[in-house]
Structures are given as C-alpha cells and as structure tokens.
Amino acid sequence: MQSTLQPGQSKVKETLLTPRFYTTDFNEMASLDISKNIHEFEAILDEFRADYNRQHFIRDEEFNQSWEKLDQETRNLFIEFLERSCTAEFSGFLLYKELSRRLETTSPIIAECFLLMSRDEARHAGFLNKAMGDFNLALDLGFLTKSRKYTFFSPKFIFYATYLSEKIGYWRYITIYRHLEKHPEHRIYPIFRFFENWCQDENRHGDFFAALLKSQPQFLNTLKSRLWCRFFLLSVFATMYLNDFQRADFYNAIGLDSRQYDMQVIRKTNESASRIFPISLDVDNPNFFQLLDECAKQNSNLTSIDNNNQPQIIKVVQKVRAYSSLAINMCTLYLMKPVNSQNTTVIVK
C-alpha cells in the first residue's frame, strides 16, 4: 500500500492482516435468482435511496485547528488507523461500483443497491482521506486502484465476507462512539463524533448482504456451507483480534482496553451473525479468547523476529515455531464445537 506524504511518499508493508481488494465471478453473480425475496430487496433499496447521511459527512469548525498537540506516538497510531480504515472503505467502493456496473442489465434492483452502497463507501473513504490531510498525509486512491493486487472470491465467499465485515464494522464504530460519548475527554479527534450515523450505513449494508444470503439457501443450509460460515466467522474475528493486539496503544489513547473492546465486538457480531448463519462460534467457551490471545502473541513474535539481529537461519527456525503454534491454535479454534442457530434446516449434499 502506498500513500503520498506532503512532500514525499511513504510505504506501508502489506501483510495477511492488511485490508484487501476483491473481485468475483460476475457472471455467476448475475445468474443468482432473487425473485422469491424481491419485496425485501425493494424495501432495502428504498432505504438506500432515502440517503439518510446525505448531509452527515460535512466537516465543521472543530476540524480547523492544529493537531500538533498530539504526541508523536498517538499521532502515528491514529494516522495508521485512518490509513487502514480509508483503504478498507475504498476497497468496498471499488467492489460495489464494479458489481453495480456488471449487474445493471441482468439485476437492476441489485445493481442499484450496489451503486448506492458504493456511494456510501466513497463518502466514508473521502471523509477519512480529508482527515488524513489534517496530518499532512493523503492516500493516493488512484494509485491504489491501479497497483493493488485483487483477491478472487466466489459470490458466496463475497457474501460471507462482506456481510461479516459490514456487521463487525457497525459494532466497532458504535462501541467506540458510545464509549467516547460517556468519556469525551478521550476523544482525541472530531471524526469520532460522526461514528453513530456512520455505523448505520454499515448496518444497512450488512442487512443487504443478509438478504442476499437468505435468497440463496444453498449458501446457508448445507453441511459445506456450515463449514464455510464457521471459517469466515473465525477469519474475521481473528484478523481483528490480531490487528488490534498490535495496536493496543491506539485504543489506550482513546481510553479503551483493546482486549475488552474486541471481546465485546466479537460477541455482538457473533450474535448478529447467528440470525443469518446456521451456526455461530462458541465465544463463551473459556478457551476461545485464551486461544486468540496465544495466536496474537505468536503473530506479534513474528514481527519481533523480523526486526531482531539474529542470523537468518535462526530467524527461520523461530518463524517455523511461531507459525506452527499459530496454525495449531487456529485449527483448535476452528474445530471447537459451534453453536447451532435456531430454526435451521441442514441439507446434506
């Protein structure tokens, strides 16, 4: 990922935990039948057309001040938060925009929903990029469009991943907003005041993908789909947990304990997903978060190994141990017995 610093440029190392850009099988997407759920999609489209946040993302006078008062460590952590968030929002914009273009003739209602979601994501990315300008930094979104590698996901994987990312985004934003509403002394920058309405966009997007999943029972009601739902739940939760473990100082700067924050967000997202997915993860199992802690420590160890001055052969051995431990713990988490959602019927295929 590349950003432009005024003057000069900076590069951020891309890892497995970095926000990614996706593409899919557009022909398969166009062939999906939503006719049985058409009224639900029409209602969702009306919500998108209402555009409740049309006048929301407007910078006010509180932004017009110097942010040199932030200490350098907090400043760097916050810039990284803005950069990662902007990249994720822009990734969503590109995917939704392309889907709206490809589906315009075959599924006009779905195409318009994607178009209006891309509008929301573009606003979010633009608002974040303007915030980065307060720190003399801006993401080169044109460069990102041309240079980023795209990960291919089939439509069902797109639905699982985007549904969960939108819902976990809602719970992340609203949890931070409610915390800072009670403790305004920790609100280091005015962008956090916008999170309440902002997260409603995420929630509506999640509801759209929930409707898409419900319209395709083969993506939910088979034994194979249960395994994939389990995989995506764990992937999304673990990615957030490992990322936030490395950025605990940022959450401390806004008065949050990163572990307690992640635990709450995971519990809420898991509960939301249980209304759509045939299973949810057993986050009440005492081993669940303990295993995530171990994964986070090993992931942190990998970063430390890269930065130490040991001979290369020693680094290789250390990395093999860390990766092995990480893999074993992730497999243990995946094999942990899930919780069946209510009123689900499993089709054996």
TrEMBL record:
Gene name tied to this protein: acsF
Pathway in which this enzyme or protein is active: Porphyrin-containing compound metabolism; chlorophyll biosynthesis (light-independent)
Rubrerythrin diiron-binding domain: residues covered: 80-213
Key word GTP-binding present: no
Keywords: Chlorophyll biosynthesis, Chloroplast, Iron, Metal-binding, NADP, Oxidoreductase, Photosynthesis, Plastid
EC top class, as a word: oxidoreductase
Domain of life assignment: Eukaryota
Gene Ontology CC terms, in alphabetical order: chloroplast
Reactions catalysed, as given in the entry: Mg-protoporphyrin IX 13-monomethyl ester + 3 NADPH + 3 O2 + 2 H(+) = 3,8-divinyl protochlorophyllide a + 3 NADP(+) + 5 H2O
Example GO biological process: photosynthesis
InterPro entries given in the database record: AcsF (IPR008434), Ferritin-like_SF (IPR009078), Rr_diiron-bd_dom (IPR003251)
Purpose of the protein: Catalyzes the formation of the isocyclic ring in chlorophyll biosynthesis. Mediates the cyclase reaction, which results in the formation of divinylprotochlorophyllide (Pchlide) characteristic of all chlorophylls from magnesium-protoporphyrin IX 13-monomethyl ester (MgPMME).
Matches recorded under NCBIfam families: AcsF, PRK13654.1
Subcellular location: Plastid, Chloroplast
UniProt-recorded name of the protein: Magnesium-protoporphyrin IX monomethyl ester [oxidative] cyclase
Major subcellular site: plastid
EC number: 1.14.13.81
Reported cofactor(s): Fe cation
HAMAP family with a match to the protein in the record: AcsF
One example GO MF annotation: magnesium-protoporphyrin IX monomethyl ester (oxidative) cyclase activity
Membership in a protein family: Belongs to the AcsF family.
Matching CDD domains: ACSF (cd01047)
PANTHER family: MAGNESIUM-PROTOPORPHYRIN IX MONOMETHYL ESTER [OXIDATIVE] CYCLASE, CHLOROPLASTIC
Organism name: Dermonema virens
